[in-house]
Amino acid sequence: MKLQNQSSFLSPLFSYLEQFNPISESYKKAFDGRAFAMNVKKSKYLLSPIDNNECLYFICSGIIRGFIKQGGKEITTWFSFGNELIGAIRHPDGVSTYSPEFLQALEDCEVICIPYTLIDKLYAEFPEASVISRQILALQYHTASQRALLARLPSGIDRYRHFLNDKNMDIEKLPLRCVASYLGMRQETLSRIRNREGQQINLKMRKAM
């Protein structure tokens, strides 16, 4: 559902961007009439392969997951818990608008949509846009590297422990089927690992008493 273009809805986005570099009033003004807000209900898609991949998204609230479909199975590739920019896979040449990714709301979400045409305008007219984007890119590269490391761990238990140690993740807010998909295992396997790890924690607590 698309909401009205009122500048007040952009405040969370501007606060986020100003963590990286001060932004001018003219920079903020460039968003008027171009960026827009959207509410996405739980389980609905923010984006799917049948849609044109024309925007980046700032998640004001809620949880979004990215996934692809392969051989009839869903493969979860990432989660966003809000207050960050997300987007689907997009070739840097900017010609193709197709993406194989699905972006799905795991709970009701409030989102700011930022068209790539607006981003191009910001790069062309505002030096701070490049400064901000470099810092965001560095953060996203680090996050992607952590996901790549997790995917290469051969043991399911090690992948699960690595996932739990990620302070940006909150497993209690995620459906187990999505966590299992993200960790590259069946849901039954994840349940066994969680039970085993829980028993070991309880045993250590009893020994410490």
Keywords:
209 residues; alpha+beta; Jelly Rolls; 2 domains; 4-stranded antiparallel sheet; 8 strands; elongated; disordered N terminus; disordered C terminus
Structure description:
With 209 residues, the protein is of the alpha+beta class. The chain has 2 domains: 146 residues, Sandwich (Jelly Rolls), CATH 2.60.120.10; 55 residues. The protein has 7 helices and 8 strands. The strands form 2 sheets. It has a 4-stranded antiparallel sheet with strand order 1-8-3-6. A 4-stranded antiparallel sheet has the order 2-7-4-5. The longest helix has 26 residues. The N and C termini lie far apart (54 Å). The N terminus and C terminus are likely disordered.
Reported CATH architecture of the largest domain: Sandwich
Biggest sheet details? 4 strands, antiparallel
Please name the CATH topology of the largest domain.
Answer: Jelly Rolls
Unreliable runs:
1-5, 201-209
User: For the record, what is the CATH homologous superfamily label of the largest domain?
Assistant: Jelly Rolls
What is the total number of structural domains? Answer: 2
Share in β-strands:
15-25%
Break the fold down into its secondary structure elements and pairings.
Elements: H1 11-17, H2 25-29, E1 36-40, E2 45-47, E3 55-61, E4 64-70, E5 73-80, E6 84-86, E7 102-105, E8 109-115, H3 116-125, H4 127-152, H5 156-164, H6 176-183, H7 187-208
Antiparallel strand pairs: 1-8, 2-7, 3-6, 3-8, 4-5, 4-7
Helix pairs in contact: 3-4, 6-7
